[in-house]
Amino acid sequence: MSRIPMFLGVALSAAMLTACPPKKVYPNCDSDETCQADGNAEVCVEGRCVECATDEQCKEGFTCQDNRCAPPTECDASRPCAEGLQCSPAGQCVECLSSGECNDGQWCQAGSCTTRPEGACEDNSHCGMGENCVANRCEQAGEGCNFDPIEFAFNESSLSSLSAETRARLDSAAACLKNQPRRVTLGGHADERGTEEYNLQLSERRAATIRRYLVDLGVPGDQLESVGYGEAQPLNPASNEDAWNANRRVEFIFR
Question: Percentages helix, strand, coil for the chain, rounded to the nearest 5?
């Protein structure tokens, strides 16, 4: 039986390693296929998975800006807005950027000052004694309980993506829920970027992540339901970073 010379065996081994490089793992990529695993709707640009590379990859009315789908800008330093309007950080002409710019009894929604509905709130100052502002509604809450929405980073749904402060708030919420046997729907949401189908799946994963964590902390599973609403129920309907940050969330909805 013939033997392969040692130098030839080394060369063959090196060639095999060169021919089969390690497979890239999301969000790193070497092709769109890597980015589109698990139902993602992203593309590979310079070795990273991003939302878009061209305008055609965004839904109607959006353009690709810095590899993210966003509405086309209406204003900038060289294109001022009409009198009475101001240019938002996202390049949109709006009436207001915060509720502090509106009259009493109004709040800033989608860049416009509108009448704040009865029972609606932005913070606890709008609520009565013994109530907390939860998802823009005044609700009764136990002492020390915080059921504010849990916000997620862009395209994230894992527990590890949450800050230590947010996980500590979830720990406190779990303790409150165990002392308050009320049924809770964990409503997952996504911002408007991406396809409706992908955003629905992403919101479902976010809600399921919070439910699993609360159950692990001892909250009875039959007390919790997780539901994904996709991009259909924005907390802030504006199209800017502040709105998108607020809309990527999981809410506590008491029943």
Answer: 30, 20, 45
CB atoms < 10 A from the CB of 82, how many?
7
Q: If you search the block for the tokens 């950027």, which residue do you land on?
A: 97
From start to end of the chain, where are the E strands?
Answer: 43-45, 48-50, 63-65, 68-70, 86-87, 93-94, 106-109, 112-115, 131-134, 137-140, 150-151, 184-188, 224-228, 249-254
Asked if 69 and 193 touch (Cβ cutoff 8 Å), the reply is: yes
Lookup result for tokens 């990859």: 57
Q: What are phi and psi of 62, to 5 degrees?
A: -115, 155
Q: What is the pTM of this model?
A: 0.52
Report all structural domains of the chain as residue ranges with CATH numbers, in order of start: 21-70 (no CATH), 129-254 (3.30.1330.60)
**C-beta of residue 189 within 8 angstroms of C-beta of residue 241:** no
Give the C-alpha separation, 255 to 251, whole Å: 13
CA–centroid distance for 250 within its chain = 9
Tens of pLDDT along the chain (255 residues) come to 455 555 555 555 555 555 556 667 777 888 888 888 766 778 999 998 888 999 998 888 888 888 888 888 889 889 999 999 999 987 889 999 998 899 988 999 889 999 999 888 887 677 765 566 666 777 665 555 788 899 999 999 999 899 988 998 898 888 888 866 678 999 999 999 988 899 999 999 999 999 999 999 999 998 999 999 999 999 888 888 899 999 999 999 887
Backbone CA torsion sign across 139, 145, 147, 153: positive
Q: 39 with 47: CB under 8 angstroms? A: no
